[in-house]
Amino acid sequence: MININRLICNIGNTLLEVLETINENGRGIAFVVEPGNRLHGILTDGDIRRLLLNGHQLHEHIQPLVNKEFVYARTTDSYRDIVAKTSDSVKILPIVDDDFQVVDFFEFSPSLFVPAAYPMLNGSEFKYLVDAFMSSWISSTGYYIDRFEKDFSQYCGCPHGVATSNGTTAIHLALEALGIGPGDEVIVPSLTFAATVNAVLHANATPVIVDIEKKSWCIDPKEIETHITPKTKAVIPVHVYGQPCDMEAVMDIARRKNIYVVEDCAEAHGAEVNGQKVGSFGHINCFSFFANKIITTGEGGMCLTHSPELDERMRVLRDHGMSKSKKYWHEAVGYNYRMTNLQAAVGVAQVERITEVLGSRDSVENQYRSALGTLPHVRFQQRGLRGRKKVTWFVCILVEPGQRDLFITKLKEARIDARPFFYPLHQMAIYKQYRGTAPNAEDISRRGIMLPASPLVVNPEVIQTIKQVLKQDNKS
Ligand SMILES: *Cc1c(COP(=O)(O)O)cnc(C)c1O
Question: What sign results for the dihedral spanned by CA atoms 361, 367, 368, 369?
């Protein structure tokens, strides 16, 4: 970063003097100011080259020659507004205050990029965080912990909430509270983030990896049914990429076969099945509040349950297995899986506007759909499956298998952090022993791209760039 003064020239300068400034600052541009530092215009090395070719002389004064059609930003512009003013031909722009004095400049650097996710923290998050900090209750007791558990469980329509340190510890805590351990089998889908299966292994139980439905990409209830054995204790339906599982079918199987259901809702806060929110169906249901999730606490998680007994059991296990009535008396070999009051403060503010967050993400997805929907080789994730209401986590599309990686490379070159789908768990060496094949998971995984969905980083220009990349029907 260079000092702004090295970019500034005076209206009284000659072309030669401006050229010297440009040569010295190495940025190819000079901001021309009037007395009082008011911005008058801009000259680039290209402008000077054109002037010389048109017969102007280096000793001429620049005043009549300065380009007065130029791009600038104001100190009141948001970062996003300023970035939007940059383009292929405008990489540096002056920033002026109310009196049109040059006070700073913005330089677009190639390292600026559209991140895969960008949390929306512009509500009361900071205010509550400072409040929690000032209260000095910065560990895992405090006003915001209780309130976050109450507010979020109420939002999901499930009476008890136990906040945890992250989503993985939430799933592990749930399995432990249900008494699942060595010798027990737990059914999980092949297409999910690895934390789902890792939590089963942390509990020393045996995961049974099954295939997904082609239409929803979620666990296939028929696959659950065919993989139940006398050892099966639970199933973890994952509402993957914001799409809720067929919970009617899953709960029906669980009742008939007498197994537990632990929903993994890490990617689907607010999704619904038959008007009922995910996180309220199973025996214990787990959320993550990692920074790339729909709402976040930085790191964090929560277990929801309808059962006061499971709620109590999880509270004990979360806090070293210590008795709630007798301090330093341990009833179980527990864990430290607590969330801090600081994280919960952020969470409370996030829950306050979860409906707004979901609405903005949904409208981002709509913009993608109207811009890219006409491309013949691009298929969007299904919306409107019977009884199911999905939410937007990432915007997910399928392309031809041979093109996927090339598209992602090109998107990254365009500074857009697109991601491939999760790899099917059973294809990784460490999980291979828990499954044979899962053709649907393999097919979907090979073709899937996750596109950024945060309203704070996705704008029409970003979507147009993505469209340009996806339009090139590259056969590789
Ligand atoms: C993110 C995620 C988790 C784990 O959450 P962490 O908070 O990162 O531990 C679990 N399951 C799924 C499906 C996820 O996407």
Answer: positive
Ligand 1, pocket-test mutation among 198, 239, 245, 290, most atoms within 8 A of CB:
290
Question: Which pLDDT does position 1 carry in this prediction?
Answer: 65
Ligand 1 atom closest to the CA of 290, numbered from 1: 7
Question: pLDDT tens digit string along 301-321?
Answer: 999 999 999 999 999 999 999
CA of 466 to the centre of ligand 1 (A): 27
The rounded Å distance from CA 269 to ligand 1 centre is 12
Average pLDDT over the chain, rounded to an integer: 94
C-beta of 192 in contact with ligand 1 (< 6 A): yes
Closest CA to 106 of 38, 19, 7, 21: 7
Give 93 or 461, the one with higher predicted confidence: 93
Which class for 474: exposed (0-12), middle (13-18), buried (19 or more C-beta within 10 A)?
middle
454 close to ligand 1 (CB < 6 Angstrom): no
Best substitution site from 165, 166, 168, 202 to test ligand 1's pocket, by max atoms within 8 Å of Cβ? 168
Q: Give the model's pLDDT for residue 109.
A: 66
195 CA: nearest ligand 1 atom: 10
pLDDT of residue 476: 45
Q: What is the CA radius of gyration of the chain?
A: 28
How close is the Cα of 195 to the center of ligand 1, in Å?
6
285 lines ligand 1 (CB under 6 A): no
Structure tokens at 2: 């260079």
Residue 193 Cβ < 6 Å to ligand 1? yes
* Side-chain-facing half-sphere of 414: CA atoms under 13 Å: 19
Residues 39, 31 contacting (CB under 8 angstroms): yes
In tens, the pLDDT along 398-408 reads: 999 899 999 99
Q: Is 421 in the pocket of ligand 1 (CB under 6 A)?
A: no
Lowest pLDDT segment from 68-72, 338-342, 363-367, 446-450:
68-72
> Is 456 a residue whose pLDDT tops 90?
no
Distance (angstroms) between ligand 1 centre and the Cα of 160 equals: 20
Q: What is the pLDDT of residue 247?
A: 98
Quick check: 110 pLDDT over 60?
Answer: no
DSSP 54-120: TT--TTSBSGGG-B-----EETTS-HHHHHHH--SS--EEEEE-TT-BEEEEEE--TT--B-S----
Give residues with Cβ within 8 angstroms of 295, minimum separation 6.
269, 289, 347, 350, 351, 354, 357
